[in-house]
Amino acid sequence: MTLDARIGNRLFRAKRNSAETAGSRDGGTPEDGTRRRIGRARVLWAWLRRRRPSTSLTRRILAINLLVLAVPVGGFFFLDQYQESLIDAEIEALRVQGEVFAGAIGAGAVIVAPGVGQQIDPARASLMLRRLTEPTQNRARLFVGNGVMITDTQSLRSAHSPVRVQTLPPPKGFAPWFWAEERFEALLDWLPGQGELPVYQERIPQRANDYREVPVALAGIQGAAVRRHPAGGMVISVSVPIQRYRQVVGALMLSRGSEEVERAMRAIRIDILQVFGVAFAVTILLSVYLAATIARPLRRLALAAQRVRSGSGRDVAMPDFANRRDEIGDLGRDLGAMTEALWQRMDAIERFAADVAHEIKNPLTSLRSAVETVARVEDPEQQKKLMSIILDDVARLDRLISDISDASRLDAELSRDPPTVIDLRVALEALVDIHTTASGADIVLDLEPGVDLSVCAFEDRLGQVFRNIIANAQSFSPREGKIIVAATRRARRGGDLITVTVDDQGPGIPEANLESIFKRFYSDRPTESPDGESQKFGTHSGLGLSISRQIVEAAGGRVWAENRRSPGGPVAGARFVVEFPAAA
Predict the structure, then answer these.
(1) N or C: which end of the chain has fewer CB within 10 A?
(2) How far is CA 377 from CA 200, 367, 389, in A?
(3) pLDDT score of 5 more than 60
(4) How far is CA 31 from CA 24, 35, 215, 430, in A?
(5) Domains of the chain from N-terminus onward
(6) Is the pTM of this model over 0.90?
(7) What is the distance between the alpha carbons of residues 107 and 101, in angstroms, rounded to a whole number?
C-alpha cells in the first residue's frame, strides 16, 4: 500500500459519509446513485456494441501505441527514490528542531534537586514544549532517564481531563473530481508501499522502550525511525538527548505524520497523470487516424476483392488509391492491375476456347465431307484420294490437339516450376548441332567470345522456344539458304541484356503481320516453298510462336520479329529477336 493510498484511506470514510449525506439531501440514496451509474454504463456498452467492431489491425495499432506509452508512465507509481528523499528531508528538519528544543529545555527546564542531582522540571518543560511546538504542528514527547514519559504535547491538560488535538481531514471538493480522486486512491492501494515498515503503536502508559529510538537518545545518541500508521500513512520521528553540562537528563522525541510527503507525492503523480492523460488522448487520436489511413483502405480493398471472388461481374471497381504514395497505394494499384490481368486472362481463355473450337471444326468438317463422299464414290482413284484427305485431316487433328494440350499446360508449368540459371552458349551449341544433324540445314552459330551468356529461364521450355523459331526460319528459307543464330551481351543501367537473333534468307514478313504472327492459331504461309515446292495445308497449327512468346515473357524477357534489309533496300529475310536479362 502506497503513501498516498494510506492517507487516502483515512479520508475515504469521511468523504463517503459526506457524499451519502449529500445524496440524502438531494432526495436520493447511495443505492439510487449506484443504480444510475450502472444504467448509464449499460447504455454506453449497448451503444458501443451497435458500432462497427474495430478491425484486428486497428486494435493492434492501438495496443502497440498504448503499450509504448504505458511502459514509461507505469514507473510513476514507484517513485521510491523521490519518496526517500522527502522522508530524509523530513527527518533532517525534525532533527534540527529537536536539537533546538533539547538545547532550550536543557538550559531552561533542568533543575538541581537535593540528593538527586540534575533533573527535568515537568511543568516548566511542558510549558516550553507547548510553546515551541505550537507553530510547527509537531508532536513532542519528553522522557526522563528511567524511561517514563512526563510530557506529551498532544494532550492539553485542562482542569478535569486531557483534551486530545487531532487535525481534521480537508472538506470535500467538486463531486466528479472527488470520485476520480477516490478511484485513484483505490488504485494506489494495489501498489507496493511501506508494508515492510514496523507498525506504529501507542501503549498506555507510554515508556521509552516502546520506541526504539528513545533508548538510543537516553544513551546520548540521536535516533530516527519511520513507522507505518494503522490508519494509513507513516509516522516519522526523531529522538534527541537532553543534556545539561554534558549529563543526559532525558530524551526528546519529535514526531509528525507523512502528510507533507504524501501531498508532494500525490502532486507529482497527478502532474504525471495529467501529462499522461494528454499523451493518452493524443495517442488515441493518432492511432485512430493511423488506423483510418491503413485499416479502412485495406478493408475497402478486401471487400472489393470479395465482390470479385463472388462473381459480381466486371462492374466491381477496385478503390482508387493512385494519389497515395505509400504501400497502400502500391497495393491498390497492384490489386487493380491483378484484377485487370484476371479479366484479360478470362478473355484470353474465352478467345482460346473459341479459336480451339474453330480450328478443330475445320478439319472435322473436311473429314466429315470426305467420309460422306467416299461412301458414294465408286472410282478407286477417287476413293484413294479421299482416303488420303481423311488421313491428312486425322493427322492434322492429332497435331492440333497435341499443340493445344501443350499450350493449355504451359501456364501451370510456368507458375509451378521456378526459373533456373542457364548458359545460353551451351544450350544454343547443342540445339544447333541437333538441328544440323537432323535436317541437314546450314545453320551458322555466331556467339560473342569470352562473354558470359547466362540467363535465368525455364530450361526445358527455353529449348522449345529456339526450336520453334529455328524451325520457323528453316521452313521459310530456301534449301541452300543460311540460318544465322547469334548471341551478344550489352550493358544497360538497370542490368545487362543478352540478345539472341535468328536470321533467315526467306521472303520476310509483311510489315502489317510482324505482331500478328505471335497470336494463337495464326498461320500465313505461301502455297509454295522458297524452292518452288508445294506446301501441304494444315501442317502448322499456328501455336509455336505464341507459345514461344509466352515462355520468354514468363522469364522476364521479350521476343519480336523484324525484317532484314540488304544495302540496296529490298527485304533480305526475317529476323527473330529474343532478349533476356542477364543472370546476376
Answers:
(1) C
(2) 130, 15, 14
(3) no
(4) 11, 6, 53, 96
(5) 3-12+86-267 (3.30.450.20), 417-581 (3.30.565.10)
(6) no
(7) 10
